[in-house]
Amino acid sequence: SYVGGDITAGALVSMIWNDPAMSLFIDLGTNGELVFGNNEFQMSCACSAGPAFEGGDISCGMRATDGAIEACVIDKETMEPSMTVVGNVPPAGICGSGIIDIIAELFRCGIINGKGKLVREGERILRDEHGMGSYVLAWKKDTGGAKDVVINEVDIDNFIRAKGAIFSATQTMLASLGFDASVIERVYVAGGIGSGINMRNAVTIGMFPDIPLENFHYIGNSSQTGAYAMLLSSQAREKVFELSRSMTYLELSNEPGYMDAFVAASFLPHTDASLFPSVQLD
Questions:
Q1: What is the per-residue DSSP string for 240-272?
Q2: Taking CA 94 as the corner, what is the angle to CA 90 and CA 95, rounded to the nearest 5 degrees?
Q3: CA 156 to CA 228: how far, in whole Å?
Q4: Would you call 212 exposed, middle or buried from its count of C-beta atoms within 10 A (0-12, 13-18, 19+)?
Q5: pLDDT tens, 140-159?
Q6: What global pTM score does this model have?
Q7: What residues contact 277, with CB distance under 8 A and at least 6 apart?
Q8: Which of 37, 64, 214, 282 is disulfide-compatible with 95, CB 3.0–4.6 A?
């Protein structure tokens, strides 16, 4: 029930059905929906990632519209952020691609640990009366907004669970076929979470498999593109129905190892560091 029109239209657009290379298609949203295969077969699955990729369940989260922080780099020594904001206006919140960058940078700089807890102190680190930490990206006195733009430990925890759902779904689907991540030749990432994703940062936090970065491609809102194609082309419409009929669906909740894989992936980058050999912290 979770793999329907969006993922089928996206599978059409990614063209994995016309390519002999082993490819993985990932549509990031409240439900993380995945397709793995090539021109001989396709297997699909869905995981409940929650709304974090679209800015939901994040205290200053928002969709990728004007004012959303969509990219970020943090200076390790000063902990000062440099941000790219949609619309080139003062920051008002954080969209999905920005959250990926911010968490990866906080982790790289040693500001948070593998559990997502703030472990450094400084001007940009605030703590409430319960001791919960926040990292300030933009002060309200500088933006003219009603509040500071921050990311707190609850936000980070929500996002770690969302990225853990994506990685464990990938891992479980591959394992069900007797494969591991080394067989993936192309990864197509879709979803309206920003103008693009820093794939290095997505690997750093353990969201995507640690494979060569040139294998990753961000293809934007593929469900919308696929819908356009179906409206404009009867051939595309017929192909979508053919794909939906031929695709094998894997119900993750019935896979005995999925919950263990999810728990193991709910860490930065993963409880098994050997799965991410390229992740080198400064």
A1: HHHHHHH-EE--GGG-TTHHHHHHHHSSSS-S-
A2: 120
A3: 35
A4: exposed
A5: 999 999 999 999 999 999 99
A6: 0.95
A7: 210
A8: 64
For residue 159, which of 280, 269, 242 has the smallest C-alpha distance? 269
The amino acid that residue 250 corresponds to is L
Distance from C-alpha of 61 to C-alpha of 188, rounded to nearest angstrom: 24
Q: Which DSSP helix (H) or strand (E) runs through 167?
A: helix 153-176
pLDDT attached to residue 176: 96
- Using only the alpha carbons of the chain, give its radius of gyration: 19
CA angle centred on 194, ends 247 and 262, rounded to 5°: 55
Give φ, ψ of 67 to 5 degrees. 100, -10
Q: Are 225 and 9 in contact (CB under 8 A)?
A: yes
Average pLDDT, the chain: 95
d(CA 18, CA 70): 32
Q: Find tokens 């949203």 and name the residue.
A: 29
How far apart are the C-alpha atoms of 182 and 256, rounded to whole Å? 22
| Closest to 259 in 3D by CA, of 150, 161, 182, 148 | 161
Q: Which of 165, 126, 125, 168 is nearest to 261 (CA)?
A: 168
